[in-house]
Amino acid sequence: MSAPPPRGPGGEVTVIVPMPPSYRGGTEEYAYQLVRSYSASRPVQVLTTNVRWNGGSDALAIGTARLDLLDAREVFQRPVVVGTAARAHLRQAIERSSVVQLHMPFPWVERQVTHWARRAGVPTVLTYHMDAQFGGGAGWSSRVVTGAYQWTSATAALDACSAVVSNSLGYARASPLLSRFMGKVRVIYQGIDLDRLRANGGGTGIVPPRTDGVGRVVFVGRLVGYKGLDDLLAAMQRVVAGGRRVELLIGGKGPELDRLRALSTHLGLDGSVRFLGFVPDGAVGPLYAGADVVVCPSVSLLESTPITLQEAMAFGTPVLGTTLPGTEETVPDDGVHGRLVAPRDPNALAAALIELLDHGQRSDRPFVRGWDATARDYLALFDELTAGGRAG
Question: Which of 91, 173, 205, 352 shows the greatest Cβ crowding within 10 Å of its Cβ?
Fold first, then answer.
C-alpha cells in the first residue's frame, strides 16, 4: 500500500456527498460545482452513494476529481450507507485525506465520518444545507425519526467537526440545531453558474412564447411542501380575480405535482397556471430572462437560501421571496428589484406580485458571484485548518 499523501495546506480534499452527480438536487448542484472548482488546483476525491445513480451524460461535471460510489439504500428518501466493505472504504479514504468536507444532512454517515476523522487528526468541514426533516415532515413518526436523527447523528457530527459552513449568518442563528454551534460557524455565500443557464437553444419548446399584455411570473424548483406553492397558487387566484392578466409558469418536478395540479384546477387557474415539468439547464436561463417576476415563497427553515432567486437576480429579473433568514440576507426588498413578504401569507404575496408587475425594473448591472469565488473561500478555510497538519 502506498503512503498516504502529505497533510497540510494544498493537500488532497475528500468531499462526501449523499447523492451522486447524476441526481440534480440543490445540495448536489452546490457540492459538485465546488468539486469541479477545487479540482482545478487540488487533488480531489469524491465519496458518494449509488442511490439514483445512472451514469448518464447529463450528470453534473466534477472536473478531474475521482469518484467512488458506496453501496447504500434509501430510508425516508435519504441514502444510508450499508455493508462493512463500504464503511471500511469510507474510513480508509478519510484517514488518508488532508481535509474532509461533508455535505449535511447525511444521516448517521456524518457522525461516523467526523468520529473517524477526529481520531485520525484530519480536519472536517461540514456544509450545513438545512434543518432536515424525515418522513415528509408531518405526523408523530416523522417527528420521532427527525428527533432521533438530530440527537444521534447531526448533533454528534457538529460537536466533532472542525468547522461548519452556512451560506447565511441569519440562517445559522435561526436554526434550532446549528445555532448551538455558532462558535464553529463560518459563513460562505454560495455561487451561481450563469454559463450553465445561458440560452443555447435550450429554451426551444419548453419556454412558452409571451402573450402581449400578459404578465409572466415564474417559479423553478422542486415541487415540495416547504417551497410554499400552495400560497403561490392562492395568491395567483387573488391576482387573477382582481382582473390582472397574468400567467404563472411552474418549472420542476417532485412529489407534490399531482396535488398542485388538482389545487390549481380547484382554484379556477387552469387558464393562468402552466406546469412545465423538469426544466433542463439550458431552458432555465431563458425562463428567468423572460419573466417579469421570479418567485420562491418558501415557508420553513428547510430552505436556507433559494438559489433560484439569486440566479434570477443575476439575469436582472425582479424577485419575490419570504422573510426567512437566509433570503433576507441576500434578496433586496425595495419594491423595484425585489420584495420580501412573511411566509404563509397569500394576501401579502398577491400584493407583492402586483407591486413588482407594476413597478419592478430589470437591473442592467446585476451582481454575480461565481462558484470559483465560493470555492476559493472554502480552500482558504481548508488551508487554515490544515496549517498545523492536524485537526484542531
Answer: 352
